[in-house]
């Protein structure tokens, strides 16, 4: 399998866990799109849409939203979520093969997904389907939300362990390809497709709890990959993580603040420019 097929397969089997735990698309995203586009976006391609969390948020403003998702499990969850929303359709595809016509989109959005796509071919495809002056928006939240120092420390320890296992454990090593998020902006700039680009940083707060933080950890692809293929390599660490989180947070509500980074590129205002 090529990298895009491997990455799609990585998300099989845990769409429900992903959908219940991940944060909603923050409202700042829609407002930033309105400011830079000059009007509320009318047509939006949500590429790598997962379970549709971002897709449905765009539907509040746009007249037509297409969610593009290669994973059949994630796509089925997005279709269920979008049922009864006539402005949304969900279809299979990849970042570099959306199936959309030239110049269709006001916005191409990648919500927590651009790092799973081959950057150069994805940016070329985004440029093809964007209208003159259209926006490419790749936005990600920092994995660990602001909530409690001891709980965050336990999450840091768990994620560091998962990263080591992804690099070294034979059951998961080589089963995916992930591109560095820190290079998103430079890749947009270096692509040649977007003469204006910048990064914006903001935060979004949601209700939280020990259960929510545990669910967030379980929604990580690396955690799920190890649970499926080498549970003995991860279950003790998950048990230790749960013990530390429950000791830190108890049963009380705990607001969670997610830090976001948006990397934005804007196409030229005239169709002839490239």
Q: What secondary-structure arrangement, pairings included, does this model have?
A:
Blueprint: H1 3-10, H2 15-21, H3 27-37, E1 43-47, H4 53-59, E2 64-68, H5 72-82, E3 88-91, E4 105-111, H6 119-129, E5 130-141, H7 149-168, H8 184-190, E6 196-206, H9 210-218, H10 221-229, H11 235-249, E7 256-266
Helix pairs in contact: 2-9, 7-11, 9-11
What's the short version?
By secondary structure, the protein is an alpha/beta fold. It is built from 11 helices and 7 strands.
Walk me through this protein's architecture.
This protein has about 270 residues and is an alpha/beta fold. The chain has a single domain, classed as Rossmann fold. The chain is about 40% helix and about 20% strand. It has a 7-stranded mixed beta sheet with strand order 3-2-1-4-5-7-6, sandwiched between helices. Strand 1, helix 4 and strand 2 form a beta-alpha-beta unit. Helix 2 runs antiparallel to helix 9 and helix 7 runs antiparallel to helix 11. The model has no long low-confidence stretch (mean pLDDT about 95).
Strand residues, percent:
15-25%
Overall outline = globular
The helix/strand order is: HHHEHEHEEHEHHEHHHE
**Main sheet: strands, sense, barrel:** 7 strands, mixed
Query: How large is the radius of gyration?
Result: 19 Å
Q: What is the CATH C-level name?
A: Alpha Beta
Total count of domains: 1
Helix content: 40-55%
Task: Count the E strands.
Answer: 7
CATH topology: Rossmann fold
Q: Give, in spatial order, the strands making up the sheet with the most strands.
A: 3-2-1-4-5-7-6
Task: Give the count of helical stretches.
Answer: 11
Terminal Cα span: 33 Å
Low-confidence stretches: none
Q: Give the helix/strand class.
A: alpha/beta
Q: What is the CATH architecture descriptor?
A: 3-Layer(aba) Sandwich
Superfamily at the CATH H level? Vaccinia Virus protein VP39
Average pLDDT: 93
